[in-house]
Amino acid sequence: MSLGNVKVKVKINKKGNSNRSFEFSYTNSKGQFVQKPFTSIPEEQISIALLQKVKTTMQTLTVKVLFEEEGDRILKMREEGQPWDRDTLPEASSEASEAPKNVNPKNFHNPYNFVPAPPRKTDDPELGDRKPVGHGCYHSDRWTGRISVKLKTITPLLIPDASEMTENKDHKTYPVRLGADGKPYLPPTSIKGMLRSAYEAVTNSRLSVFFKHDKRLAYRMSATEGTTAKPARVEKRGHDLYLRILEESSCVGGAAKLPRYDKYGKSPDKGEKHQALKYNSTKGLPQHGVRVRVQLSKGKVTQIQRWDDNIPGGDWKLGWVCVTGANIGGKQNERVFIQNGSDVSVKVNDNIVELWEDLIADYQKTHEKDLAERDKKGISPSAYLGNKPGETAWSRHVYEKSEAKLQEGTLCYVELQKGYDLDNLHHTDIVALQPVTISRRLYDVKPEDLLPKSLHPAENKQELSPADRVFGWVKQNGKGSYKGHLRVHSVQCQTSKEKAIAHFGKSGVPLAILGQPKPAQTRFYCAEDKNGKAIEKGEYKEHGYESRDRGLRGRKVYPHHNHLPEGYWDNPAKHRTDDINGYYQEYRRHSGENERDSQNRSITGWVNPGTEFTFDIDVSNLSNVELGGLLWLLSLPNNSHHRLGGGKPLGFGSVRLDIDLENSDWRTGQDWREFYRSLTPITPTSLDPSVCIRDYQNAVQQIYGSGKSFEKVSFIAAFLRSSTGFNDGSPIHYPRTNAKIDPEGKNYEWFTDNEGGDLWSLPSLESGKSLPLKSRTNQKAAQGRGNAPTSAATERAKPS
């Protein structure tokens, strides 16, 4: 190991502009004094921290450095006392990093991943929680001023103009949002939002928003699990509700079959073989929830009457009609829940109410968009749509708003805990309430239960984390807010409008369909622990939200699409089915004549790669660490990117940020006092971002490092990986089973195959690992699947 010096000389002219020069000198292994240009050393052999320091300093300084010699080559240079920090991201060391020679045709990366959000140390004076210092004065030891920033687009940028949107048959088309000068208008709020998301991640701040995660999610249960469910009815006795569990021995499971449909899901006309059974007296069709009397034969209803009609002699039983709809192909029967004098009841408590209402809320939220589509077309959700796969009627609990509340008269199926005693039934024996026998099943815990309290949105000013103090805070529920100490303004496009914008004509380019968040996909969203560790391959989905000891993966991010081939973004209006060096046209919808509908959007233009913007950030009363985190984000290592605008899962919106030091001016409160007190010009303080950046890095390393360098802290490593992209040759796209894009977009097939196959989980972002296109490599993995436990709280089932 050798020791040397790097000297940075800074000269500021009368206009305030700076000129910098660099020198590197050392004594080599032969005892000879050597002096050479610092710029002659390849950047990949200089530590990230040292490179940032010498490139951003605005004052003359000398840095003692350690390095390795290999002949005349200088290797692994870093500041004395600091670690080598490039092992985490070897591919990000240089802008000239070589792209992989071949695209991996068997693997892919998911468009989104997660930056871990481990439990926070809330009492830390800098990265913890505290009341902000306020805006009343310039504090002597805090930074106030202006940071000038340059932004350059690396991939096309989508800035859609909603006010100029046109719509044709539910398909929306957007132009580029323009300013008064005809150039693209980039809203300051978009930049601020981008920076805030990144700042939250790299300071491990509280989440600013965490809405609608207070209900348990649901997963689709296997067919064999539904056979043990028992019919039940909610009844009111006095002021309380009771769950009456029906145990009629003459019917399988206590519910009798009620003939209703033919094999196509329609109510047959008179004279057909499978005729719907109607009332003997009025010939009316029995409706859901109605109390009736029935005669049975081998568990099937042969005659039915209203319960209060005059009934002739015979063996009649009382019950309630349960109509869920023609929700399965070939369904012919509905059910009548038969009451018995020996039925047992359980008093309904809050936990039982939650079992029902959280499940129905999940059903209705999952199908909300599809219901809206049917409503636009004037199609009743209960209507049968024809004899095609999937074109069945919807179950009533999906569209009927009254089903969302557990109330008197609710008909449902009850799943009981194994080993229950029917003569001594307790509410804790109720595992699940479900609207149909084969239903979705609730996970054991809510998403919010897996998020450490230290990461929940702040409830008051004393709980404000770094991102809340710097960018501002609004209480999620109730009154309370704080104006932040950062403002983005003066956004200007520096590129001519002719070069800045690509136009695609009036019809525009139909974009690929963007996937909807699916937090119920536990192998992608859930973590083994509170630190965001990826779930091991082979876990059943039931075990995702099974325990409060589990965690969430963290903050969702969209990794940069690295190594896209030349010409990838060319001719977007043309539907290209072939690949370019193994990369397909992921951003354009491949649906032939059906490429434009309500599921996707079109754009008539985008902001071209290479377009340059400038903007200013005003900051006030920031500490060294608060400012350091911001400055680090504005001067990321080479080949690192932020994500901005729309279409990020499709590769749009990768931008590069750099500080324009010559047009920046931030000073301490003490410096500003001297400036305002003086009647003569005062030379601006030389800016040295590296001082604040190092304080920020040291703070992160001290709290979360556990002996690791700053770049190897979990959320920093993941953030850097996201900003640089992957380097294994695997393309980024939504899960599918083939490298080539399926025009019908059957992305669900990958998840279906995975469910019956190897049960892959989303790899950690920092690992850089990919997923296989063919997830079903072990055809026997799902054998014994029906023996999975009925409750995730029971002992785990392991794949065979």
From TrEMBL:
InterPro entries: CRISPR-assoc_RAMP_BGP1436, RAMP_III_fam. Residues 79-110, 766-800 are annotated as: Disordered. It comes from the Bacteria. Residues 79-89 have a biased composition (Basic and acidic residues). Residues 150-212 form the CRISPR type III-associated protein domain. Keywords: Antiviral defense. Pfam families: RAMPs. The keyword Cell inner membrane does not apply. This is CRISPR type III-associated protein domain-containing protein. It comes from Limnospira platensis NIES-46. The lineage of its organism: Bacteria, Bacillati, Cyanobacteriota, Cyanophyceae, Oscillatoriophycideae.
